Amino acid sequence: MTDRASGLRAPLVVWFLVIAILGAHLAFVLASAAVQDSIGLAFALLPARFHGDNPLAFSQAYEAAGPIFGHAFLHVGWWHAGLNAFFFFLLGRLPAQKLGAWRFLVLFFASAAGGALAFLALNWSGEDFAVGASGAVCGVFSAYFLALAPSWTQALAEPRIRNQFGMIFLVNVVLMGVAAETGLFPIAWEAHLGGFICGALAYIALAPRRIAGPWG
Q1: What is the b/e burial string over 133-172, where b = at least 16 CB atoms within 10 angstroms of the residue's CB?
Q2: Cα dihedral angle (57, 199, 164, 161), rounded to 10 degrees?
Q3: Interhelix angle for 134-146 vs 101-122, to 10°?
């Protein structure tokens, strides 16, 4: 399967988000330890902050938007930020071309939010935290495969597309989930799952409709 984008050509919205992911990590690295702690508390996904009786709980409900969306711009290291930015750039170009800038931004942040909510729901009583754009990137994965055909229904009907997507899902959710649960690799597979689901739903909702004329 190939898409229409090649080389470094990409819609501006894709470059904007790549720069935002990498630039946010650079700013975090350059910040003082105290500022890093404040940023982490404000934007990392910490289930305890969503418990009203916890000392870390939000003082105002709107503060929950910080981690639900902002966690996508925090990373544990350059390798983490770089991998997410690379895969986002690789697979984000085609759906960005099909959706346009504003709808693609909606898809990106809907996928990030879906990943955040899945992580919180499946770790409600846990003490682990999650950061990174991988949930949003998994949503872009879904959008990429659905964008490989003229319509998402045609994409789902194509066995080759379904098989490729199934393999990506297997690696990023099932195998990563096994690795995380057995302690081999600390990764928020729950965010991947939520991102995949919300990215697919967002693309289906946002993709331009092909309206048949009187001649078909």
Answers
A1: bbbbbbbbbbbbbbbbeeebeebbeeeebeeebeebbeeb
A2: 170
A3: 130
Measured CA to CA, the distance from residue 103 to residue 17 in angstroms comes to 14
Tell whether pTM > 0.85. Answer: yes
Do you know the residue count of the chain? 216
CATH number reported for the structural domain that contains residue 167 in this entry: 1.20.1540.10
Q: How far apart are CA 202 and CA 47, in angstroms?
A: 25
User: pLDDT tens digits for 28-83?
Assistant: 999 999 999 999 999 999 999 998 888 888 989 899 999 999 999 999 999 999 99
211 lies in some domain: no
Interior angle at CA 199, CA 85 and CA 117, nearest 5? 90
User: Which single residue is written with the structure tokens 């909702």?
Assistant: 205
Tally of domains in the chain: 1
**Alpha-carbon span 206 to 142, nearest angstrom:** 13
Rounded Cα gap, residues 122 and 53, in angstroms = 19
